[in-house]
Amino acid sequence: MSIKNACCDILSQLTYLVNQLSESEYTKPIEALSHSSIGQHVRHTLEFFICLEQGFKTGILNYDNRLHDKLIETDKFLALSTLNRISDFIASNAQDKVLRLEVSYDLDQESYVSVETNYLRELIYNIEHAVHHMAIIKIGVRQTIQHIDLPVTFGVASSTLRYQERNQKISLQE
Length: 174
What we know:
Layout: H1 3-20, H2 23-27, H3 38-58, E1 60-61, H4 70-74, H5 76-92, E2 98-103, E3 113-118, H6 119-144, H7 158-173
Parallel strand pairs: 1-2
Antiparallel strand pairs: 2-3
Helix pairs in contact: 1-5, 1-6, 3-5, 3-6
């Protein structure tokens, strides 16, 4: 599977989840998620993709400059619209492109270090970041919203799925 297809699959899984949630389920704080909501995790995940989309256009990528858009975390229909827009962007941009990544680890000031990266590398990072947050979301869903149907692959890295499949085949052979 290509990086682009893997990314579109992840975004499709998120869309599938958000479509199943009511507005109140999307925004309800969940104790197991340190009182954050599914909407907050979806917003956080999408904003990284939004930063990548903007960085693709400008050549400069900075994940620290996210908007923290409360509307995406409180309006599931805006989140779905954003998911569709990002999916369209990913589907139409399979070519690689050199980017500058700005990062800052200074807590006292915003002084950025700039490093060279590229679109496909950052797309991989966004996939991994999304899977991580989807795993967190899955904990909240399983604890509080049992009627939601999540695919077995939701929030699980491809390498983990391959590992589990290999181990299952080995145990069946024994």
